[in-house]
Amino acid sequence: MKYFFSICSIWSLTIMTLVFAACRKNNGVSSDGGLQIINGNYLADACGNRLVLRGVNMGAVYAVDLGKKELAEIAQTGANAVRLVLTSRYTRWSNGTPGNIALTGADIESLIKICIANNMIPVLELHDYTGSANPIADIDKAAGWWISADIKNVLMQYQRSIIVNIANEPDNGTGGHDALYNAYAKAITALRNAGYTCPLMIDSYNWGKDPQFIVNKGRALMDHDPLHALLFSVHAYWPANGRWGNYSDAQITAYMNALKNTNLPVTVGELARADVQSGVDYTINYRLLMALSQQHSFGYLVWWWGFYNNPGSNNTLSMTANGLYTGLNADGKVMAITDANAIQKTARKPCKN
């Protein structure tokens, strides 16, 4: 009888182990124990703690030395994430002389290391195909860049710590939801087949602004991903009295409630104080967006920081005109420090596992 119970115990343990492993795969837990999406519902760190992105966008390819100085300043906000603007080719500023060169895996690695050292999640986004009129072709090109040998070989080393934003705003709102869905589905398959296990971020339709794409197609895309490890990003350029649209507080609230009802992991990938339309700033109720993000456990990433050695790249949406934490402007301070839902007051760092 003792032998019988031992056999039963071994079989029970084996079955439990297999079931647990299957659940881990189905729940979107990356195979290497890093960042994960739990039950297709929320982002978690390597320890399984719920993680809500709180941070900023940083224009790495527009900064001297890819913005390494700026990253050190951003860390002072307490941000747990930085969305890094990348392009396949960029202008390298050195001694005042620009040179158009290819962005390399080593370039990206240098930024990832700084982010990890400051316990900030690097959200890597490819900016080449912003506002594409042909997302089927261009998202495919974006996927091809991520799986190119030089880029992939580096990023494979950091899958526990990164999020790959396949393409920034890769649709101009002319092709329809189905076309964008098909483009993303193909890219997700390509990246997973290439060995990417990290969470993938999906920008919404129509320059990222349309929440309805996530409502209509988000769950189907999550189901399409064999790891069920997607994050959905909406760019909330929803001004109160815009040239191309007016968004009341009631409308913004309805959008955010609809996104919450999807039960999907959502981040406001670009949160700005205004929408710049034909050179005119149209004010956005960003405080409401921050409050709703906190209420719904949505991430938010402010657009955008500012530049230290290349101040010519700053614009009216820069949080700081000199790239320094001490140089935060009025809205930048609200977003980063003083508001009840500011980065500094709501960011929780990922565990170091």
TrEMBL record:
Family: Belongs to the glycosyl hydrolase 5 (cellulase A) family.
Gene Ontology molecular function terms on file: hydrolase activity, hydrolyzing O-glycosyl compounds
Glycoside hydrolase family domain span: 51-307
Cross-referenced Gene3D superfamilies: Glycosidases
Signal peptide: 1-21
Biological processes per GO annotation: glucan catabolic process
Organism of derivation: Niabella drilacis (strain DSM 25811 / CCM 8410 / CCUG 62505 / LMG 26954 / E90)
Protein name: Mannan endo-1,4-beta-mannosidase
InterPro entries in alphabetical order: GH (IPR017853), Glyco_hydro_5 (IPR001547), Glyco_hydro_5_CS (IPR018087)
UniProtKB keywords: Glycosidase, Hydrolase, Signal
Pfam families: Cellulase
Top-level taxon: Bacteria
PANTHER family, per database record: ENDO-BETA-1,4-GLUCANASE A, GLYCOSIDE HYDROLASE FAMILY 5 DOMAIN-CONTAINING PROTEIN
